[in-house]
Amino acid sequence: QKEVEQDPGPLSVPEGAIVSLNCTYSNSAFQYFMWYRQYSRKGPELLMYTYSSGNKEDGRFTAQVDKSSKYISLFIRDSQPSDSATYLCAMSGNAGNNRKLIWGLGTSLGVNP
Amino acid sequence: NAGVTQTPKFQVLKTGQSMTLQCAQDMNHNSMYWYRQDPGMGLRLIYYSASEGTTDKGEVPNGYNVSRLNKREFSLRLESAAPSQTSVYFCASSGHRDASDTQYFGPGTRLTVL
After folding, report:
1. CA–CA distance from A109 to each of A102, B12, B14, B46, B80 (Å)?
2. A40 touches B: beta carbon within 8 Å
3. Are B34 and B95 in contact (CB under 8 A)?
4. A89 to chain B nearest CA, in Å?
5. What's the pLDDT band for A41 if we cut at 50, 70, 90?
């Protein structure tokens, strides 16, 4: 079993839809949770960063962490065609062998006008 | 600020040839990383450098060497390229001494080994 599981999709939604992207993980030591967006033929770019549990909102994007369920989510409201990209989750712990970023495989999202 | 830059953007090699991928960052970050990204495999860490003067193996180091030339630059060398090294290579940097902090990526190098 991988440390971080992420459904690769593809996910296709109409413009204006609410999108929910998810990752599950197995290591309870993870404390830092990130979402990256990667456009085709580009490098990943940091979208959201949260520490420990809770929610974080930035414009149309909301990141949610549920440590009890080992589950993180990224919600996109009022999705736009420009949101079409691959979304990768990444996470890490505080010390020792938990310091390296562990990546999900990414979910491919298409938003249709 | 340019962020993280990588050269070249594209490269085609024949099996057995060598090459060096260059990476530089202008964010005064301590840590730098080399990843490869393959379909269905995601991002895999090749090597990283937590600070100037140190390098460590990642998940898939075989067939690669790295040099942390100074705080800004981190190069990746393929001594004898193999078709299995056909991939997209990303360099990244982060501001803290360990890999738990957020990483900022370059645009990537697309390498094909024939």
Report:
1. 21, 30, 35, 27, 37
2. no
3. no
4. 11
5. very high
The token pair that represents B15 in the structure block: 């099996």
Amino acid at A113: P
Residue for token pair 């938003």: A111
Token code pair at residue A92:
């890490």
Query: Would you call B108 an interface residue with chain A, using a CB distance cutoff of 8 Å?
Result: yes
CB atoms B102 and A104 under 8 Å: no
Residues from chain B contacting residue A103 (CB–CB below 8 Å): 42-43
**What pLDDT score does B96 carry?**
59
Whether residue B66 is predicted with pLDDT greater than 60 in this model: the reply is: yes
User: Could you check whether the bond before residue A113 is cis, i.e. omega within 30 degrees of 0?
Assistant: no
Question: Which pair of structure tokens corresponds to residue B111?
Answer: 């390498």
The closest of A108, A95, A93, A3 to B59, measured between CA atoms, is: A3
Q: Which two tokens stand for residue A52?
A: 């420990």
DSSP state of B52: T
